[in-house]
Design goal:
It holds the Pfam family FA_hydroxylase. The protein has 452 residues and is an all-alpha fold. Helix content is 65%, strand content 0%. The chain has 18 helices and no strands.
Length: 452
């Protein structure tokens, strides 16, 4: 075989053949399916399958076990708190409001989902620095007195691992390394973000308590919670809640970014629009202090925005379904069930973080909202104001660019997998270019900090 044939072109030729093989397409299908659905939707589908099995095949007892364990912690909490009082608190009256089920548990679920997801998306940021810097410090360690006792292969392993993770980080991060969120570059900014997010997490607990009071007034079932809902109810309710969330998030968001003189603005009285635009824009300003995204800063916003943009749209759906179901006399089937409510709160909190992660992976594609943050500084090109995308589609504010970039990124991943397989078949090492064909496009040259 000639040198030319045994060169990089051989791997390219083999990769072309591999991509046409059905075995390769089948092997790539699970990853491509995950990329399209996302981790949250996959988990929701898995939970729906478990519900169908529990209702129709074999009771799995997962929900019953969760309630049992939750009640155990509730009793321990009550004993630790109320046994130390002087009897001035009538626990029986407090218990009638089922605050543990309706306030403590959903609050813990929502806060935990947000915090855990934010921490998981901080992990890739550890690999943002160039490997040359790590290599420099590795040489310093190796030449030090302590380094003499550290095997060289250990240091090489750490460096090679970091180098691979850095390449993966650079290929999946939507914005380039010189366009990172200010919180990643300044400790003071990071502290400010964490402090404001903590305040908004407390505000979310307050909002959940208000929602629970309304649900109690609407007759939510707090007695027969061990009975699981019908298998077809949670998917229908979830879709309705998602549409409600999209609608009540989209319109304030659109108004905040659209100047009163723009032709595509919402057709409401000019004076009212001017007032709403001023108020919403002012409350939304903090969230857009930086174009780049980072997951932990999803709820980095004013208290007013947290209530109007984030919490009200998400918590309105469960309240409306309970109120309407009771009015129609079908609350036993279509009323808001605690298991559906808990799953919805966890999904909403984690999805908010993932939409702001700025990190594209097989589990999550935040490209749509990332483009919104990138273009938010220009009212003429601002786009993607909703969550689901339905109302963006209705009003023509959806941009096709994220979908096109996702397809290109998926194609690059398929090509990279084919090249890796080709290298194993040929025994020829891939070139540097062949090892790093997965890239993120840069389509904004005006990258400066401005107010919205």
């Amino acid at each position: 075989m000639t040198d030319e044939r045994r060169g990089p072109s051989e791997n390219e030729r083999l990769a072309n053949e591999i991509q046409r093989e059905w075995s390769f397409k089948i092997a790539r299908f699970p990853e491509n399916a995950m990329e399209r659905l996302g981790i949250v939707n996959l988990l929701l589908i898995a939970l729906e399958v478990l519900l169908i099995v529990s209702n129709n095949v074999l009771p799995l007892g997962l929900w019953k076990s969760f309630i049992h364990d939750s009640s155990h912690y509730r009793d321990r909490f009550n004993k630790a708190v109320f046994d130390q009082t002087d009897g001035s608190i009538d626990f029986t009256k407090i218990q009638s409001y089922h605050l543990w089920k309706g306030l403590v548990v959903p609050s813990l679920i929502g806060v935990s989902a947000y915090v855990i997801t934010a921490i998981l998306y901080l992990r890739p940021e550890l690999y943002q620095w160039k490997p040359d810097l790590l290599q420099h410090y590795g040489h310093l360690v190796a030449e030090s007195r302590l380094g003499r006792w550290i095997p060289t292969k250990w240091l090489n392993y750490i460096f090679n691992l970091y180098e691979r993770r850095h390449v993966e980080y650079m290929s999946n991060t939507i914005q380039p390394a010189d366009r990172r969120h200010v919180a990643l570059q300044d400790r003071v900014e990071f502290t400010r973000v964490v402090r404001q997010v903590a305040i908004n997490l407390l505000i979310s607990i307050f909002a959940i308590s208000l929602m629970w009071i309304v649900l109690l007034q609407a007759g939510v079932d707090t007695q027969h919670i061990l009975v699981l809902p019908k298998s077809y109810v949670p998917p229908v309710q979830g879709l309705v809640w998602y549409l409600i969330n999209d609608m009540f998030y989209f319109y304030p968001h659109w108004i905040a970014h659209t100047n009163p003189h723009e032709q595509k603005r919402l057709q409401i009285p000019q004076s009212l629009y001017n007032i709403l635009h001023k108020k919403f824009k002012e409350s939304h300003r903090l969230h857009h202090r930086c174009k780049a995204n980072i997951g932990i800063a999803a709820w980095y916003c004013s208290v007013a925005e947290q209530m109007i943009f984030n919490l009200f749209p998400a918590l309105l759906g469960p309240v409306l379904t309970q109120v309407l179901a009771r009015a129609a006399g079908v609350e036993k089937i279509w009323g808001t069930h605690l298991v559906t409510l808990y799953v919805w709160i966890a999904a909403a909190a984690s999805s908010s973080v993932m939409a702001h992660s700025g990190y594209r992976s097989i589990w999550n594609d935040p490209g749509s909202h990332d483009l919104h943050h990138e273009r938010a500084f220009n009212p003429k090109t601002a786009c993607n104001f909703g969550t689901l995308g339905v109302f963006d589609w209705l009003h023509g504010t959806a941009d096709k660019l994220p979908a096109e970039e996702t397809r290109k990124w998926q194609g690059q991943r398929d090509r990279q997998a084919a090249l890796n397989k080709a290298a194993k078949r040929s025994g020829i090492e891939l070139t540097k270019e062949q090892k790093s064909i997965i890239t993120q496009p840069v389509h904004d040259q005006d990258w400066v900090r401005k107010d919205v």
